């Protein structure tokens, strides 16, 4: 429990920093996930790429119109609104950032989606405010990496899904530490530590599949789609170069975590993968 409290504080600190607030708002209009690029799609056009990524999610959920879905780590709710609009789903978004939830509600109200999207302050480690089997589907869009206790989060997803309910996760995995050179290892450690991502630090390629099976999910597909999001990471690496170099020179790397992550993750592409996990709750 103290470990979970410390984790929540670290996540709040990470997203409350000026760099995070301004970067996500001005570069990505408040959305916080990578885009999907086919050959020839321009890397700098972030919004259409993020909508394409959200469509990848909607297709993998494969749920009927009106199905009830949990967005675990919804941020400002852009993913939820795409699913409500383009896939006619009924989405409940949860997050621990009150300032993101306020904005999510405001945007849904403004776009006439308040009846199909709702946003609740809640930690995904404890979904006790939701009933057993309440949802037809659940998803994480780059959020599970922040978990302090991934087994517990999966157990909660399992509980709130109906039998056969769908779980789709857009998440990173890592290359085992012993296979990384010292520079890649140091960079990866710093990104996970400063970005408050203990689960990314812990889960080697192949581990999440095992955790899902242990939590009584049937894993239907695991897709390494790193190549699809690299154009956006490349753009971030270019944008981050100067702020990161300056922060390092001043000994203030902790103030430029996003810039650091863009540069170092681009440089050490052998240290990680970006995956889509599609699973269903065993009956
Ligand atoms: C990279 S952002 C993604 C946000 C959103 N899915 C999107 O794509 O715009 C990760 C989100 O997970 C949320 N998060 C982290 N830990 C969480 C927890 N324990 N419970 C609920 N949300 C959490 C963060 O607050 C943040 O909004």
From TrEMBL:
A Gene Ontology biological process term: methylation
Pfam families to which the protein is assigned, alphabetical: Methyltransf_11
Keywords: Methyltransferase, Transferase
GO molecular function: sterol 24-C-methyltransferase activity
InterPro entries in alphabetical order: Erg6_SMT_methyltransf, Methyltransf_11, SAM-dependent_MTases_sf
Residue ranges constituting the Methyltransferase type domain according to the UniProt record: 70-169
Keyword ATP-binding annotated: no
Keyword Iron-sulfur set for record: no
PANTHER family: HYPOTHETICAL LOC100005854 (PTHR44068:SF1), ZGC:194242 (PTHR44068)
Annotated protein name in UniProt: Methyltransferase domain-containing protein
Species whose genome carries this gene: Frankia nepalensis
